[in-house]
Design brief:
The structure holds two protein chains of two kinds. Chain A is an alpha+beta fold. Helices cover 50% and strands 18% of the residues of chain A. In chain A, strands 1, 2, 3, 4, 5, 6 and 7 form a seven-stranded mixed beta sheet that branches. The longest helix of chain A has 36 residues. Chain B is an alpha+beta fold. Chain B has one domain. In chain B, strands 1, 2, 3, 4, 5, 6 and 7 form a seven-stranded mixed beta sheet that branches. In chain B, α1 runs parallel beside α5. Chain B starts with a helix and ends in a 10-residue tail after the last strand. The chains are: A alpha+beta, B alpha+beta. The interface between A and B is medium-sized, with 27 and 29 residues.
């Protein structure tokens, strides 16, 4: 029913470098806000083009996440920390970013500017443009999953980018999110040392 | 993107991106073909951003005096190949836009694209080649042949005739490689060309 992990090849980071340049070219035409909108639309379209999922129990769903069988674990290495808190081990965009920095140079400022546009309009959770894709995709993908007939809801908690920059959801929302994710602020800090993202999944 | 800009618009976008990336990668100089080919094998040249490139040193391009002015280079795997496989395994199928962009490029620019990434790729290599010099001569890149994920092949008679390599040789290479191109010294006087 699902591919063996070995069948899913690593993408060539050149494709990601080219995509970043493509986005920079696009931003020069439509502006930062336009790029933000484009990335959100792209991520939603990707999620909508993937098959819906249903699981009888939350434990079955967590098992599918662990084994890389769910839409939410197709593109990234993730592990459930609690039954509600999910951590991404390594950003799926890290290799592309490293290749860009190695071969092309410093990342263009427009990626951070697009993230700022997302932070001010949607939620304070993005460090760079790739996080707009990640958050929007996870949100749209989670909405396509049913566990015991209930939809799944996604909320980001914190993001740590390759260069060490962090984006943690606003303080007023953080306490409630951590309680729902069943982790403490100290545990969040520990997770962010060696994880790219920490997020919440719960029945809607 | 294709919904707003159309296939031709996406082709123009990709070509601009190829120019832009090449212009950001700077210039490179090599003493001769040996040092350039070693650098290609070790992944040190601007071309190496694409992934693993094999210099086919048994397939030299010579000028009217018999001097070596270039070589053929090949990639076992198209840069876009793994992404296509990932898309097929995760989404289920490739977007129709991929084929439409490649077709627009083949009709309007150069009949060599087997996927939409070829559009970006060909322009990127052409521009990068201008910034790389071997023995003081800037290079020229000619895309010769491609093989797509579904087995479709494209061979460029126009570019093959420039490097005076027979189509059968390139067709044989396509059994083992997915992308074959030539790098040669810009302005070299090749056999079969006029004075």
């Amino acid at each position: 029913m699902s591919p063996e992990p070995a069948r899913m090849p690593e993408s060539n980071p050149f494709v990601e470098v080219a995509t970043h340049l493509f986005l920079e070219d696009l931003a020069a035409k439509v502006g930062t806000a336009g790029l933000n909108q484009y990335l959100m639309s792209l991520a939603r379209n990707l999620a909508q083009s993937m098959p819906e999922e249903e699981y009888p129990t939350w434990e079955d769903f967590l098992q599918a996440l662990r084994e890389g069988r769910s839409i939410l674990s197709t593109f990234e290495e993730i592990r459930p920390v609690t039954d509600r808190c999910i951590a991404t081990t390594r950003s799926p965009f890290e290799r592309g970013w490293r290749e860009y920095a190695k071969r092309v140079g410093a990342f263009a400022a427009v990626h951070q500017e697009a993230a700022e546009a997302y932070n001010s309009r949607v939620r304070r959770a993005a460090v760079t443009s790739v996080h707009i894709v990640l958050h929007t995709f996870r949100e749209a993908a989670a909405a396509r999953i049913r566990v015991d007939s209930r939809r799944v809801r996604y909320e980001p908690i914190a993001t740590a980018w390759v260069d060490g920059t962090r984006a943690v959801i606003g303080e007023e929302a953080l306490k409630g999110l951590l309680a729902r994710a069943r982790i403490s602020p100290t545990q969040l800090g520990m997770l962010l040392r060696n994880h790219a993202d920490v997020w919440l999944l719960e029945p809607a | 993107m294709i919904g707003r800009a159309g296939a031709t618009g996406v082709v123009e976008f990709w070509q601009r991106v190829g120019d832009s990336l090449a212009s950001r990668m700077g210039k490179e100089a090599y003493l001769g073909w040996t040092s350039f080919n070693v650098a290609v094998r070790e992944g040190r040249t601007a071309f190496s951003i694409e992934g693993e490139v094999t210099p086919l040193t048994d397939m030299a391009i010579t000028d009217v005096d018999g001097d070596v002015v270039g070589y053929l280079y090949a990639m076992r795997q198209c840069c876009y190949g793994p992404t296509i496989t990932r898309t097929r395994l995760s989404v289920g199928r490739m977007s129709d836009a991929d084929r439409r962009v490649a077709e627009a490029y083949n009709e309007e620019v150069h009949d060599i694209a087997v996927c939409n990434f070829c559009v970006f790729h060909e322009r990127f290599r052409e521009e990068i080649a201008k910034n790389v010099s071997v023995a003081g001569n800037p290079l020229e890149c000619l895309l010769l042949a491609t093989r797509g994920w579904n087995g479709e092949t494209k061979i460029s008679p126009k570019n093959l005739s420039q490097v005076t390599i027979h189509e059968d040789h390139v067709r044989a290479l396509l059994r083992n490689y997915e992308c074959v191109y030539a790098l040669l010294m810009r302005g070299a006087r090749l056999k079969g060309e006029g004075p």
